[in-house]
Design goal:
The chain is of the alpha+beta class. Helix content is 35%, strand content 30%. It contains ten helices and 13 strands. Strands 7-6-3-4-5-11 form a six-stranded mixed sheet, with helices on one face. The N and C termini lie far apart (49 Å).
Length: 284
């Protein structure tokens, strides 16, 4: 069954929500980057957050990037998503050896950057400090401080005995500016009473069932369902453009070696080979 992302409204359009199952997406990232369990957990949460926030993009051409630079042994992570359920990401240090659930220690203190490329001359960049390293809490803090949208973010990854991904997913619930206090209070109380998202995933709940447990009493209305997956849109042409940004001195040094080079995409590890002649053309 393919990963899916749903979105919709509740409480007479006073609350909006996004939820997804990202199991296959996170497993593809684990296999691609050979991540240890704690890194799979951290990157999986950020990939899931990327899927949910990518769904907030208004246009098909919009891109959302989540970048974490941190003091923990993971060092950093980067995830890019769009409005069509496509997401990709990588981590600086994929083989950190800590307990699988010790994401906060693996990430530690640092900065979360949310970069929105919506076709303007320069992308919008919002930076906030990491408040816990748990990813969901850090995204909640970002929404509250940078976007000033009261939000509840929950992200989770569960493992099989062989450290493959058994279940992954999460949700974002946000209050609209005109939400009355009565609805806010009821929703806050409900969120404190429900199981954690990992417990709900462990029970085998779908995104629809998770949202039903939370917002079923608020008039849940699902407006859209999108298939989501780990997808890299790299190509030799794109890598060529990246190489062409090197200085002429650096390109001359590579060409002087007299051998072809191999360049790997950071997101999917696909390798592209460039001959000396191709490098000379780039140099021109």
């Amino acid at each position: 069954m393919a990963d899916t992302m749903i979105r919709g409204m509740a409480a007479n359009k006073q609350v909006r929500f996004f939820a997804c199952n990202s199991t296959d997406t996170v497993e593809k990232a684990r296999i691609t980057h050979h991540t240890s369990p704690v890194v799979t957990n951290a990157l999986g949460r950020l990939l899931t957050g990327g899927v949910l926030m990518g769904a907030m993009c208004k246009n098909d051409t919009d891109k959302l990037t989540l970048r974490i630079q941190c003091q923990g042994p993971i060092s950093g992570m980067l995830v890019t998503a769009d409005a069509n359920g496509h997401v990709k990401g990588y981590v600086s240090e994929p083989e950190v050896m800590l307990p699988a659930n010790d994401v906060a220690k693996a990430v530690d203190l640092g900065v979360l950057s949310v970069i929105k490329d919506i076709g303007l001359k320069e992308p919008y960049v919002g930076d906030t400090h990491l408040v816990s390293g748990e990813i969901a809490e850090d995204l909640t803090y970002y929404f509250a401080t940078s976007d000033q949208i009261p939000s509840s973010v929950a992200l989770g990854v569960l493992f099989n005995d062989d450290t493959s991904v058994a279940n992954a997913g999460g949700f974002i619930i946000q209050l609209m500016p005109f939400t009355p206090d009565e609805v806010v209070d009821r929703l806050e109380k409900k969120i404190t009473e429900i199981d954690s998202v990992t417990q709900m995933l462990d029970r085998g709940l779908t995104p629809e069932q998770i949202l039903e447990e939370i917002l079923g009493d608020f008039g849940l209305e699902i407006t859209d369902t999108t298939e989501t997956r780990f997808h890299c849109d790299c190509s030799k042409e794109r890598v060529s453009r990246a190489l062409s940004t090197l200085s002429k001195k650096d390109l001359d040094s590579i060409i002087a070696d007299g051998e072809s080079i191999e360049v790997k995409c950071q997101f999917c590890n696909k390798a592209y080979e460039f001959s000396v002649e191709e490098l000379k053309e780039l140099r021109k």
